[in-house]
Design brief:
Blueprint: H1 2-13, H2 21-29, H3 37-49, H4 53-56, E1 77-79, E2 83-92, H5 97-108, E3 111-114, E4 117-120, E5 142-148, E6 153-158, E7 174-177, E8 180-182, E9 186-189, E10 194-198, H6 202-225
Parallel strand pairs: 6-9
Antiparallel strand pairs: 1-8, 2-5, 2-7, 3-4, 5-6, 7-10, 8-9
Helix pairs in contact: 1-3, 5-6
Length: 226
């Protein structure tokens, strides 16, 4: 068992994932005896990405944000990384709150937008799933709240429309950030420096999605009253 734990740990370390010894032991206690190693490697990565990295990982210093990263007096600095972090929140700051509320309500009614035309989406038993049009995602910009394995939280901006980052993604998804600029305690995300690993935090994602419409309505009323 010790040899398997070592192999799995090395496999994850190669992906810049650093499970704690306690987490790895708990994982192995839930696996079936004689499970092939390739299957274990696939499962261990999937399971780790579905955890809160503040409790399941023990990374080296290079894989977390610098302890003084929130120092707002520093105009600009580059952090090499790679830093593992998870998304706790994402806001579309490129569209008004009301327009986002309207998009949510249209989706609740089973509608989608195609250009200027509203198309009613009706699921039929014999429909070909491959023929369904994918939902149109906003290109942002987006404001994200990130958390590293030590629990340090910092805001980040995606101003370039990075593929895979949008308000339809799962909360708790893990990112690897490399060679990123930090301007006055805000991370500036660039396409070449962001690797989306996947994963989620089930409870957080559910609560975030269920409360998003209400948060947007509240924010919209605040905008109108400003």
């Amino acid at each position: 068992m010790a040899n398997i734990a070592t192999e799995l740990t090395q496999h994850l370390n190669g992906r810049h994932l650093y499970p704690s010894m306690a987490w790895m032991q708990n994982f192995l206690s839930t696996t079936r005896p004689n499970t092939p190693l390739p299957a274990l490697k696939q499962t261990v990565g999937f399971r780790l990405l579905a955890t809160d990295i503040t409790t399941s990982t023990n990374p080296p210093a290079i894989s977390v944000f610098p302890s003084d990263i929130l120092k707002g007096s520093v105009p600009s600095r580059v952090v090499t990384g790679p830093v593992l972090c998870e998304i706790l929140d994402i806001e579309d700051i490129g569209n008004s709150c009301w327009s986002q509320v309207e998009a949510i309500e249209a989706r609740e009614r089973g509608e989608m937008t195609k250009g200027r035309e509203i198309v009613r989406v009706v699921e039929q038993e014999n429909d070909d799933p491959s023929a369904a049009q994918a939902p149109i995602h906003s290109r942002g910009p987006f404001k994200l709240l990130l958390q590293d394995a030590k629990g340090l939280k910092i805001y980040a901006f995606d101003l370039r429309g990075i593929e895979g980052l949008n308000t339809n993604m799962t909360i708790g998804v893990k990112l690897l950030l490399r060679n990123f600029d930090v301007r006055r305690a805000v991370v500036m995300l660039e396409p070449g420096g962001v690797q989306i690993l996947g994963g989620k935090l089930e409870a957080l994602d559910k609560a975030w999605k269920e409360g998003r419409k209400e948060r947007l309505i509240k924010a919209a009323k605040g905008e109108a009253g400003a």
